[in-house]
Structure formats: structure tokens, C-alpha cells
Amino acid sequence: MLILYKTSLENLEKRQRELALAEKLFDLPITMYIKLVKAQKELSDLSKIYQLLKEFSVSYSLIVPATYIVIGKHSIV
Q: What does the angle CA 6 – CA 60 – CA 67 come to, to the nearest 5 degrees?
């Protein structure tokens, strides 16, 4: 889902650049697209959250088996 959102945002950014060039060509003021800026910020935040979740998942998968091994050794002794 994040990839789809990222692709869609890239297409919008490309279109915004094209419009900015056209505005510049005709000496018009460059339009700021507030919703596009907000979407870029949201994508950045979502990417950070996804990366943290991914790192947590990897760490958790490494810690849990080790915990069971330690518990198993103590219960035998």
C-alpha cells in the first residue's frame, strides 16, 4: 500500500513540476499546492513508521527464540 501511495505521489509531483515550468514560461506566479506538500509530509512520516516497524519485527524475531532457549536451560537445571 505504501508503494502505491508513493507511486501516486511521484506522479503528482511530476505533474506539479510540469505546471511550474509552464507558469514560469508565461511569467505567472508559481502555484503552491498545499495538499501536495501535506501528502509529501505524510508519506515521509509513514515511511519512517514503516521502517521502525520493520526494524522492530526483525529484532523481535531474533529475541523471542533466544528467550525461549534461556528459559529452557534454566528449567532443566
A: 175
Number of domains observed in the structure of the chain: 1
Give the global pTM.
Answer: 0.70
Instruction: Find how far residue 62's CA is from the centre of its chain.
Output: 24
Rounded Cα gap, residues 7 and 28, in angstroms: 29
Domain of 16 in residue numbering reads as 2-76
42 closest CA partner among 14, 12, 77, 72: 12
User: What residues contact residue 77 under an 8 Å CB cut-off, 6+ apart?
Assistant: none
Q: 28: alpha, beta or left, given left = phi > 0 and alpha = psi -120 to 50? A: beta
Q: What is the pLDDT of residue 74?
A: 57
Residue 37: in which H helix or E strand, if any? helix 34-76
